[in-house]
Write a structure and sequence with these properties.
With 425 residues, this protein is α+β, with helices and mostly antiparallel strands. The chain is built from 13 helices and 19 strands. The strands form four sheets. Strands 1, 2, 6, 7, 8, 9 and 19 form a seven-stranded mixed beta sheet that branches. Strands 16-15-12-13-14-11-17 form a seven-stranded antiparallel beta sheet. The longest helix has 16 residues. The protein is elongated.
């Protein structure tokens, strides 16, 4: 058995930041990671560029946390987005702010972000041991966590144990839900994990016809009943199962599906939005009013009046989308343009300004950028990240039932809770 001040389970952004914070305060820290090296998931964030944080104030930051934002108030007050920027830049990594206040390394390399964290661990003499934790060592009488037992039989003991194991997204990076079982062993309630920031499956098969078509500068609006719950301008991708792309990932975080009673299987994810009353609406030409778009249609129809309808919209729309949109508007593809009626043109205009799709579910949780759900934050002290149920146990990162929208908010959660937990330990 080995004795240390703090054991951190999980060498992701939250775990590494917690280990660095505690070691800076003179504590002996042991970092356990089931992968051969730390930060595997960090390397794929932001499409390999790593959206480190969002350069915004605390009010805007909290507004971009849909689940339990108040729980994070102390963490963000202690370690703000400005603190995250200063942490990396003071260690030799220049950052830049892009559209939507998203912060990236100037090199556009996630590996450079990871290198800063790994270098800090080395300088502070924090050992990273390749080991998968199978259970906590708990004094049941005292309700105290004493350390951990690994799958290979090794035991490590510490005054404090921090769970920063991540959720269930991208299991190939090590996020396989181990942390939920460990937290439950200590008596914690787990809010059933579901996917968030995830592509959406649609009832309609039309997206399959447009598979691979990427749209820029379109507006996606999500309605629940007649109430809009999300609307944003950006990029969208049609796929064989429905829709994906940055707009769709952001929209998914605003859509509450059914909760699983057991494991969140792919079959469950694929139907979890059924009966929830959601509707997707795509405005293909948000820069044009209905009147302006109607005038544009009239010009194109006059220009190509002797052509078939399917050959008349190539200057306005992607070719792959034209047959789908014409059929949706009830216009035969071979209809001569000079025979298209005013009513047909009106239906086409309505289709272009509000192309509707019916979401039925999400892709499997393994494909989600983050997991929604996790350790019930009512059982965690928000000022220290300490367990309220077992002394010596702490939490940080995605394992907690908090999550943010795209834009660097989830990494900010990881860094801020990691710092607070490292200090709390």
């Amino acid at each position: 058995m080995n004795q240390t001040d703090l054991i951190v389970i999980g060498a992701g952004p939250a775990g590494m930041m917690a280990a660095i914070t505690a070691a800076q305060r003179g504590k002996s820290v042991l970092l356990l990671e089931r992968n051969p090296r730390p930060g595997r998931k960090l390397l794929i964030t932001g499409k390999g560029r790593c959206n480190v944080t969002n350069n915004c104030g605390q009010d805007a930051l909290l507004a971009n946390i849909p689940r339990n934002p108040r729980f994070l108030y102390s963490a963000f007050a202690r370690f703000s987005t400005a603190d995250t920027i200063a942490f990396f830049e003071s260690r030799g990594l220049p950052l830049k702010t892009e559209r939507g206040s998203r912060v990236f390394p100037q090199s556009d390399r996630a590996a450079d972000v990871l290198a800063v964290l790994e270098r800090a661990l080395r300088e502070l003499n924090v050992p990273v041991i390749n080991a998968r934790v199978s259970s906590l060592l708990i004094d049941e009488e005292q309700k105290t966590v004493l350390g951990v037992r690994c799958g290979d039989g090794r035991e490590f003991r510490a005054a404090a144990t921090l769970l920063a194991c991540g959720g269930m997204s991208y299991p190939q990076t090590g996020s396989t839900g181990d942390g939920y079982a460990l937290a439950a062993q200590a008596g914690h309630r787990i809010i059933p994990p579901v996917p968030s920031l995830i592509p959406i499956l649609t009832e309609e098969k039309e997206p399959r016809e447009m598979q691979g078509l990427s749209l820029k500068n379109v507006t996606l609006t999500v309605y629940r009943g007649e109430k809009p719950v999300f609307s944003e301008l950006g990029e969208l991708l049609f796929t064989h199962f429905g829709v994906s792309g940055p707009l769709v990932l952001s929209a998914s975080a605003h859509m509450e599906g059914q909760k699983p009673e057991g494991p969140c299987t792919a079959a469950f994810c694929a139907t979890m939005l059924k009966g929830k009353g959601y509707r997707l609406s795509i405005d293909w030409k948000p820069g044009l009013s209905e009147e302006q778009l109607d005038r544009r249609l009239l010009r194109d129809f006059a220009k190509f009046q002797n052509k078939d309808a399917v050959n008349s919209l190539g200057e306005l729309l992607p070719r792959k989308a034209i047959p789908v949109l014409l059929r949706r508007a009830g216009i035969p593809l071979e209809e001569k343009v000079n025979r298209i009626t005013k009513e047909q043109r009106r239906r086409l205009l309505e289709t272009l300004k509000g192309y509707a799709l019916t979401p039925v579910g999400f892709r499997p949780i393994e494909e989600a950028i983050i997991t929604s759900g996790g350790v019930d934050v009512r059982e965690v002290n928000p000022k220290t990240m300490a367990s309220k149920l077992a002394s010596g146990l702490y939490f940080a990162g995605e394992l907690l039932d908090v999550d943010g929208y795209t834009g660097g908010f989830n990494l900010q959660i990881a860094f801020a809770t990691g710092v607070l937990a490292g200090e709390g330990c």
